[in-house]
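Worked example 3. Consider a protein that binds S-adenosyl-L-homocysteine.
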Amino acid sequence: MKVIRLRAGKERSLLRRHPWVFQGSVEKGKADPGETVRVESAQGQFLCWASFSPNSMIRLRAWSFDEQERIDAAFFQRRIEAALAVRARLPIASDAVRLFHGEADGLPGLIVDRYRDTLVAQFLSTGTERWKAVIADQLLAATGLSRLYERSDASVRTLEGLAPVTGWLRGEGETAITIAEHAWQLSLDVAEGHKTGYYLDQRDNRKKFAELVRHYGCQSVLNCYSYTGGFSVAALAGGASEVISVDSSAPALARASAHVALNGFEAGRHQALDADVNQTLRDLLKAGRSFDAIVLDPPKFAPTAAHAERAARAYKDINRLGLMLLKPGGLLFTFSCSGGVGPELFHKIVAGAGMDAGVDGFILDRVGAAPDHPQTICFPEGEYLKGLLILKR
Ligand code: SAH
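Given these inputs, the predicted complex is written out as C-alpha cells:
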C-alpha cells in the first residue's frame, strides 16, 4: 500500500472528516489514478484511506477514516446499502430518486439516480472510475435491478484527467422513461437529458410552487430556465391560466410542451419560448408585461468560489429584472445551484437586486435540495442548491 504524507498542519480538515485534500497539502508520495493510498500526517499518524488523483487539484478523496476498514468490494457494498437504507426512510414522492449523492453518502465522485427500473450513474473521480465495475455490480445487486446507464459526461471529469463516457454499463434497451413525481407524469431520456436526464433536486420545490400558485391565486407565471417544464406543470396544477416556459434548449422545451399534454392541461395555457432568459426578461419589460409569479432557476453560474464575483453580477441582473416584472403581491421563487455562492452571499445578491429594482419583499421561505440530495455536517460544499421565496410588496 502506498503512503501519502501530508505537510505539517494539513491534517486538520481530514481530522474533521472533510473528505478532500488539495494538491498543496501533500508533502510526498505518488500513486496511479484512482489507486487506494494510506494518508498520514507529517508525524506519521494514520488519517484515512483515500483514492489518489494525480491530475486534479483535489489530489486525495477519502474513502474511509477507519484504519481497520479495507477498501474492497464489500466496502462499496456497505456504502451503497447504507445510502439505500436512508432513502427507504426519506419522504420521497416519486419513483425517481437520487440513490447516491457523492461525498454526502461516503463515496466521493459517485452520483446515482434511479428512474423507475433504470439506474443512471456518474463516475466523476478517478477513484470511482477505477472501481466502476465493482460499484455497478453492487448497485444492481442492492437494488435488484438490471439496467444501469452511464452518464460520465460532466465537465468535472476533465479536471480529473478523465475522458467523457456514456452508454449502457449493464443491461440495454429504451432510454426514454416516464416517471411519476407527486401527482404528475414527467418524461426524460437518460441518454440525452442534462446531467442524468432530469433535475430531481427541485422535486419538493415544484410541489411547494404548485401549492403557492394555488394559495395566492397566481394566474400568469413566467418559468425561466424551465428545462423540461417541471415548474410549469406545477404552475398549471396550481391553477395558473397562462404559463410561459423560457429555455435555450429546444429539445427541453419540446418536452415541456409534451408534459402539458401528458398531464391533461390545455395546450392554450402554456407557451414555450426558445430564447435567452436575459434578453427575454428585457423584452417582456419593454413590452410592459407583468406576472403573478416568476421562477428563476439558472444553471450553475459559479462552479467554484473563484467564479463568485462574475456570477454575482449575473444573478443580480436576472433577479433585478424578475422583481421588476412581478406584480405587487407577486411571488419570486429564485435559485442558485452554484457551489461557489453560499446562502448568505445569495441572499445579499438578491437584496442588491431589490435595491436596484426599487422593490422590497417578504422572504416567505428559504429552501434547498430535496432530502435524497443530503448535506452533511462535515462537507459544507454539499449545500449547493439554495432558493428564496419572495413576496413582492
Ligand atoms: N428548472 C429546471 C432546471 C433548470 S436547469 C427544472 O425544474 O427541471 C437550467 C436550464 O437553463 C437548462 O435547461 C438550460 O438549457 C437553461 N439555460 C442555460 N442558459 C440559458 C439562457 N441564457 N437562457 C435560457 N435558458 C438557459
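Take a moment to read the result before moving on. The first helix runs from residue 12 to 15. The first strand starts at residue 2 and ends at 6.
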